[in-house]
Amino acid sequence: MPLLEKDSESKDNLQKMIDTLEKANVASLTGRMSTFDHEQVVFCQDKSTGLKAIIAVHNTVLGPAVGGTRMWAYGSEEDAITDVLRLSRGMTYKNALAGLNIGGGKAVIIGDARTDKNEALLRRFGKFVDGLGGKYITAEDVGISTKDMEFVKMETDHVVGLPDYLNGGGDPSPVTAYGVYMGMKASVKELTGNDSLAGKKIVVQGVGHVGEYLVSHLVKENAEVVIADIYEDRVKAVVTKYGVRAIDVKDVYDEKMDIYSPCALGATINDETLAKLGCSIICGAANNQLSNEQIHGAKVQKKGILYAPDYLVNAGGIINCYWEIIGYSREAALAQAEGIYAKTLEIFNKSKSENIPTYLAANLLAEARIQAIGKVKLSY
Ligand code: NAD
After folding, report:
1. CATH number of the domain that 230 lies in?
2. 264 CA distance to ligand 1 centroid (A)?
3. How many A from CA of 229 to the centre of ligand 1?
4. Which of 150, 168, 186 represents a domain boundary (last residue)?
5. 230 CB within 6 A, ligand 1
6. Whether residues 318 and 357 fall in one domain
7. In this structure, which residue's CA is closest to atom 30 in ligand 1?
8. pTM over 0.85
9. Which 3-state string (H, E, C) describes the chain?
């Protein structure tokens, strides 16, 4: 079954089916795997270390499934399954759209990262990853640090996102920020015909790893940068270093701006914020910015705001990981992240010509690439 039917009526029907299955939670696991077309789901259990983990391999048409491992104290096993199925599918789309020769996968470790994580548990998890023989390559995600990955690496070579001293790519944030910057320039080009950010008022919500690197690009281009962060020390550091203005986190959506750049958390584009948001472009690093992809993706379009799909513009992080797999070079990773500019424009073109929201144009382009390359692979 195609990941998403081309015909829009079938797409609606498929979505209705997915919603029903998710809500009613009636489907068997293989039924749910077939709904999203997952290839393999591996349940891992080890009494001595207390490890409970699930590895989901969604699609390996383009190459080995790559995606991070999340450690989270899920309310139920069912929540963990839903999360790993959803996240692994998201990685297939992200990796395909970024033009990488890797598929999509994800792992979750069920537990509290502050209290349940230890060397033995992480190494046992590494052994399970190793057992998949390279079909799944892991990296860090929420609740898992680079340091934790060093323990996983002791048991398997199928790990990326490692520090420089382990021949890894180091901190991916500068590459992610560069990709977001490219997506932002392409968005301005789409609206004005010129990609200069000079004089554009840009609100960066969250000045952590990615946010701060993004601010440095924007300031260099003489944009009017406004920042907001929940941590006073982060705000102070960035204001002092770059001479930008700060606003309170609760005032972000009331601020008139040209570009809203979410670089903190997901789901910030929802009914409540859309009622207030006064901007012409949304482009930022945060994952899953649309609270409900279909509903808010369409509402953003209706409101006349140009939305640069998050999973395209924040692909710098996975691009950095990809170069770890094929032979690391920071220059090559940055050069590939620069391609986000052209891809963003391609998505906007498709969105305009087919009159569909930009998130959907991105999804369709990702699927088209998987289908096309899948056919190439059939040839000897
Ligand atoms: P980070 O934790 O270093 O920074 C996030 C910042 O947001 C922190 O300074 C935090 O204080 C701030 N914040 C939290 N809640 C906030 C709020 N309500 N209002 C304003 N600020 C708030 O994370 P990061 O690595 O910079 O990543 C930022 C986002 O980009 C995350 O959503 C992450 O998933 C996504 N992302 C990051 C990368 C990467 O390479 N680091 C790659 C892809 C996607």
Report:
1. 3.40.50.720
2. 4
3. 10
4. 168
5. yes
6. yes
7. 286
8. yes
9. CCCCCCCHHHHHHHHHHHHHHHHHCCCCHHHHHHHHCCCEEEEEEECCCCEEEEEEEEECCCCCEECCEEEECCCCHHHHHHHHHHHHHHHHHHHHHCCCCCEEEEEEEECCCCCCCCHHHHHHHHHHHHHCCCCEEECECCCCCHHHHHHHHCCCCCECCCCHHHCCCCCCHHHHHHHHHHHHHHHHHHHHCCCCCCCCEEEEECCCHHHHHHHHHHHHCCCEEEEECCCHHHHHHHHHHHCCEECCHHHHHHCECCEEEECCCCCCECHHHHHHCECCEECCCCCCCECCHHHHHHHHHHCCCEECCHHHHCCHHHHHHHHHHHCCCHHHHHHHHHCHHHHHHHHHHHHHHHCCCHHHHHHHHHHHHHHHHHHHHHCC
